[in-house]
């Protein structure tokens, strides 16, 4: 590997003379202008140089190369803020340079290309791309061919593109077909399509490692292939929460430079069998009901969630259940610490160090010890029982355009924990307040009927006899009137603990009764009886079981992303500074 990648010379950009410097992590060019003292420097981290081409090159509307002799063109990542989103938009920056001689031009192209190789080792050469032609507004194919493919072509990425013809085709392909030579898998679609890639890659990796996915106690093997998401779906929550914007160009550029964002994954089990994996939401009650309702209105497209959300809200349901959770070990953070997991997050970096102690960059030597689960004793589980509006488990903030801070604004993408949000039954206005706070920066956990815990596993069961009662009640629905308990009280909470836990954390038994005060305008809908059981929404899929066990697996997959870049954290990256690594935001 070439070590001396420094180079400095005069160059021209248009008619203006510049001093160009390649040093360590950065490529800078500064205007040489005697009149102005404030010299303008443009500084590009080498890791964000996309391509270096001989000549004056343009790629749109089609590739054009002129003046090949003393010229070279540098394509790089250019940032701009995005109104209404958490992160920054990335665009293709391009500068055409003219050198005093061809020899110098050749030196520049050679040195820049070598520096790029050294500073971004994870750039993909060959990608497997799945396009869902029916996702979101059905624009997947157009988005890929008009926006993404030209960028991949510019940087020389070869891609094998499969336009899916049926659901689960991408998952099955990844489970069975030869994947030799691919550096990563890209999905063009929404969260459902991402879910297919997630299941295919995790399943394939465990098959090849001889590991059993059914047992929640097994430490799974992290996937070697990176996942890229080109957003073209309805919610695009995974893209938003890992990039900060929903923008195909930004996502394509993260893929091109080989950014790497590890992601926690939750495995969901029922009766000793794996049911599904989740990265954003495992939700019972409100979110399960919204999903079930929305399936009836698929024709509405992305709007179906708002419509179904309103219908379900107005039906005013709550459900009984027993929730048990394992609190996170030695947590470095808390769901209410008001911090946010942003690009370069120190909490997640510490998890990476613990998980991969011998190779922080490549993540190949996996320390199974860190995420041990099998030696957990029954007494470590905390148990709560009662009636809930919703029970949600999220491995990350799950921010999305509907909720720019997310279900749990301080959750981390890659810390090996999830946040369990328990919303106890409450009156309709209280629940509306809780939902409404998701749309602003107001704290949705600062409500008396909401609690949140940082956890590594969760179990959900129906109260004993509840399941049979549930079926009986369902069968008799319509003829069964409301009894006193259902009518009079919305919050009947009983939290029980196991013997050992009583000793460890003290009694957590509590009974709260609050008079139900339905708002008059909701009467027609809200006074009908809740069905006895809800369904689980697992990243937008309805689970076929009610009683489940969930376990969070630390950093099981890696995405071509870097977490949300905070535009407000811009710092001045001075010319020639080697201290600013590629994590710097705006220069
Ligand atoms: C008053 C306004 C309240 C707005 C409340 C907004 C809360 C939004 C929280 C969004 C959380 C998204 C979590 C991500 C889940 C994804 O893995 C999954 C797959 O794509 N998406 C869904 O399941 C799709 C789930 C979609 C859930 C949408 C819920 C919409 C609620 C609307 C409530 C309206 C109340 C109106 C009262 C008259
Ligand atoms: N060719 C296809 N025909 C039908 N369904 C498909 C096809 N390809 C993929 N799917 C399925 O379509 C579902 C939705 O896809 P996707 O996530 O891309 O779009 P979406 O509009 O965001 O939907 P959702 O809101 O359910 O995530 C996925 O679960 C995927 O399994
Ligand atoms: Ca997490």
Automatic annotation (TrEMBL):
<dbReference type="Pfam" id="PF19280">
    <property type="entry name" value="CERK_C"/>
</dbReference>
<dbReference type="GO" id="GO:0001729">
    <property type="term" value="F:ceramide kinase activity"/>
</dbReference>
<dbReference type="GO" id="GO:0006672">
    <property type="term" value="P:ceramide metabolic process"/>
</dbReference>
<dbReference type="Pfam" id="PF00781">
    <property type="entry name" value="DAGK_cat"/>
</dbReference>
<keyword id="KW-0808">Transferase</keyword>
<dbReference type="InterPro" id="IPR045363">
    <property type="entry name" value="CERK_C"/>
</dbReference>
<protein>
    <submittedName>
        <fullName>Putative ceramide kinase-like</fullName>
    </submittedName>
</protein>
<dbReference type="Pfam" id="PF25382">
    <property type="entry name" value="PH_CERK"/>
</dbReference>
<dbReference type="InterPro" id="IPR017438">
    <property type="entry name" value="ATP-NAD_kinase_N"/>
</dbReference>
<dbReference type="InterPro" id="IPR057465">
    <property type="entry name" value="CERK_PH"/>
</dbReference>
<keyword id="KW-0418">Kinase</keyword>
<feature type="domain" description="DAGKc">
    <location>
        <begin position="122"/>
        <end position="272"/>
    </location>
</feature>
<dbReference type="InterPro" id="IPR016064">
    <property type="entry name" value="NAD/diacylglycerol_kinase_sf"/>
</dbReference>
<dbReference type="InterPro" id="IPR050187">
    <property type="entry name" value="Lipid_Phosphate_FormReg"/>
</dbReference>
<dbReference type="GO" id="GO:0016020">
    <property type="term" value="C:membrane"/>
</dbReference>
<dbReference type="InterPro" id="IPR001206">
    <property type="entry name" value="Diacylglycerol_kinase_cat_dom"/>
</dbReference>
């Amino acid at each position: 590997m070439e070590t001396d990648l420094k180079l400095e010379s005069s160059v021209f950009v248009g008619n203006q003379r510049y001093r160009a410097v390649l040093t360590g992590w950065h490529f800078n060019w500064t205007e040489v202008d005697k009149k102005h003292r404030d010299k303008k420097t443009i500084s590009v981290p080498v890791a964000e140089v996309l391509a270096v081409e001989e000549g004056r090159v343009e790629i749109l509307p089609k590739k054009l190369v002129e003046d090949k002799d003393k010229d070279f063109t540098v394509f790089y990542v250019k940032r701009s803020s995005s109104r209404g989103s958490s992160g920054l938009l990335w665009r293709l920056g391009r500068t055409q340079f003219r050198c005093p001689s061809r020899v110098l031009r050749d030196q520049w192209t050679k040195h820049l290309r070598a520096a790029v190789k050294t500073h971004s080792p994870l750039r993909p050469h060959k990608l497997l791309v799945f396009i869902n032609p029916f996702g979101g507004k059905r624009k997947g194919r157009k988005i890929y061919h008009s926006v993404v493919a030209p960028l991949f072509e510019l940087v020389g990425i070869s891609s094998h593109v499969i336009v899916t013809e049926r659901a689960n085709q991408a998952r099955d392909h990844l489970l069975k077909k030869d994947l030799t030579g691919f550096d990563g898998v890209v999905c063009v679609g929404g969260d459902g399509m991402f879910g297919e890639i997630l299941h295919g890659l995790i399943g394939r990796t465990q098959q090849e490692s001889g590991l059993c996915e059914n047992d929640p106690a097994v430490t799974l093997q992290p996937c070697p292939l990176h996942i890229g998401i080109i957003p073209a779906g309805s919610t695009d929550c995974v893209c938003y929460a890992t990039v900060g914007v929903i923008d195909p160009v930004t996502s394509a550029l993260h893929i091109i430079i080989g950014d790497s964002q590890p992601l926690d994954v939750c495995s969901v089990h029922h009766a000793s069998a794996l049911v599904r994996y989740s990265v954003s939401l495992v939700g019972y009650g409100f979110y399960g009901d919204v999903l079930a309702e929305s399936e009836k209105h698929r024709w509405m497209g992305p709007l179906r969630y708002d419509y179904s959300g309103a219908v379900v809200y107005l039906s005013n349901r709550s459900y009984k259940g027993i929730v048990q959770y394992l609190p996170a070990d030695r947590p470095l953070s808390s769901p209410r610490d008001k911090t946010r997991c942003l690009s370069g997050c120190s909490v997640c970096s510490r998890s990476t160090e613990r998980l991969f102690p011998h190779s922080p960059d490549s993540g190949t030597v996996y320390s199974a010890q860190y995420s041990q689960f099998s030696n957990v004793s029954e007494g470590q589980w905390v148990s709560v029982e009662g009636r809930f509006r919703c029970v949600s488990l999220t491995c990350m903030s799950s921010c999305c355009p509907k909720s720019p801070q997310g279900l749990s604004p301080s959750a981390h993408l890659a810390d090996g924990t999830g946040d369990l949000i328990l919303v106890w039954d409450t009156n309709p206005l209280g629940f509306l307040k809780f939902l409404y706070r998701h749309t602003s920066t107001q704290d949705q956990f600062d409500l008396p009927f909401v609690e949140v815990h940082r956890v590594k596993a969760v179990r959900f069961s129906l109260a004993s006899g509840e399941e049979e009662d549930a079926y009986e009640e369902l069968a008799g629905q319509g003829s069964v009137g409301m009894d006193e308990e259902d009518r009079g009280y919305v919050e009947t909470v009983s939290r029980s603990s196991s013997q050992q836990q009583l000793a460890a954390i003290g009694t957590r038994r509590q009974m709260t009764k609050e008079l139900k005060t339905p708002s008059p305008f909701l009467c027609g809908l809200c006074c009908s009886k809740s069905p006895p059981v809800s369904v689980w929404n697992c990243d937008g899929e309805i689970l076929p079981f009610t009683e489940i066990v969930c376990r969070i697996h630390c950093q099981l997959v890696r995405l071509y992303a870097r977490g949300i870049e905070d535009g407000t954290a811009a710092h001045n990256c001075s010319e020639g500074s080697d201290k600013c690594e590629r994590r710097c935001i705006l220069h």
